[in-house]
User: What shape does this take?
Amino acid sequence: MSFLVAGLLLFLGTHLIRVCAASWRSEQIARMGPNAWRGLYSAFALLGFALIVWGYGEARLMPTMLWVPPVWTRHLAALLTLPAFILLVAAYVPGCRIKAAIGHPMVAGTKLWALSHLLANGNLADVLLFGGFLAWAIVVFAAARRRDREAGVRYPVGPPSRDAVAVVGGIVAWAVFARFLHEPLIGVQPF
Assistant: This one.
């Protein structure tokens, strides 16, 4: 469990720097240059991610059950991850109305993903992992939206076909991940 906690602190902490220490971040970028900063930031984030994967896998070998979720929560989780995937894809489709409306769809999708998995899983490692990501996403989303409002950021809107690309791409990504990748990578078949 200690590797999971260390990984969460490192990964989520790295991703909170802009929110919690924006001026320090700016000083470091000015001092070392943007490429060196990105490299160091990426190295810490990747190390954190590796520790999360290792620690979560280790913690699942001897789970500490906090509650037993009802079976229907697995179905709810599968359903909630569908819009999470659509939001994830919308983050990368230029001119998408979803991005224009939400501002930061990847973080919003992370909130849905974390919440859905928190509802469907009841052991300590799940609460730490999904609860940690949910708390992080709530804080980061609020800070990013506030930053956008203060800067007067407006995301461009393109034709409706951009939204169709995001929705269809999200549905396809969700179906492929749920059907073919979730069990081999995570060890659980969602359907």
Notes: The chain has eight helices and no strands.
